[in-house]
Amino acid sequence: MIWHYRCPACGQQLEVDWDWHRDEVHCPACRHDHYPPMPSEDHLAYFGGEKWPQELTDAVTGLRGTTCFVPGCYHTFDTLAHRRPVSKGGRTSVDNLVPMCLRHARLKGEEEYDAWVENLSEKEVAPSVAPITITITPKEHTAPPEPVSRDIGWTQPLAALGRADPLSAAFEPLVVKPFLPGPARQLLLQYDWRLTADGDSRVILMAWPHDAPPRPVAPGGVPDCPQAANEHSGKAGQAGSAFLELMLAGPGDRRWTAALATESRTGRVVLDEYLLSLTD
Fold first, then answer.
1. Span 150-279 CATH architecture
2. Are 203 and 267 in contact (CB under 8 A)?
């Protein structure tokens, strides 16, 4: 499979055999040595044809979830479907792929997603599932634990990954995301930012083991836990993309909770979109 991307230094269109994508590449245009970006790092980079590796699937589902992308369908995805088919000029990239159940992927076929989904009938959207029988027993259950956000003094409701709505406090928790057990050594964050006020502010990436939550803090304070941060300084209206990496200590199968927040100092930073992922 051929991986097409732009040189991070000069923007020259380059390509590399995916089997060798972890090797350093020399750009013939600007003579810059670099490593090709992963799918999660460049959403417009693409593969030639309609085949792709697991890394592309992980990037798409990390961004759009593992439920079928068709509104009203709640089946777990079986495959990825092209928004714009390759036969009509679409590319096999994070930007052009969405998760779908097998039924809807077959129904869409070679149609463009936006036009196709607008014309779906209610019968075609409704998932075909067996009736659910609910049995109520008198067994008593203990109350679920309090949300992690309360344990560390946060009052902002838990949010889903996606677009971040700016708040008013100086320290703004945007998302708290529990991760399932599995081999994990790194927490990665890729995000688009913009300044809405002149001055200095921070984007903070945090994590803690599920059995060792951070100590409570005063309202508006940063939790006491492993974290990494980027400083953003400048004038209102400035924008860009950035990346944060947080190494996780302890056994590789330990379950972690990740959190993302912004901290306004003399300025204010807002995240428009972000992708949070856990890797080994």
1. Sandwich (2.60)
2. no
∠ Cα 173 166 160 (to 5°): 55
What SS3 state is found at 41?
coil
- pTM recorded for the entire structure: 0.46
Tokens 């902002």 belong to which residue? 156
Q: What is the DSSP letter of 155?
A: -
State both tokens at 49.
């044809």
pLDDT for 126-138, tens place per residue?
Answer: 654 445 556 666 6
The full set of domain ranges for the chain reads: 38-125, 150-279
Segment 147-191, tens digit of pLDDT:
333 333 333 333 333 333 333 345 666 766 666 555 567 888 888
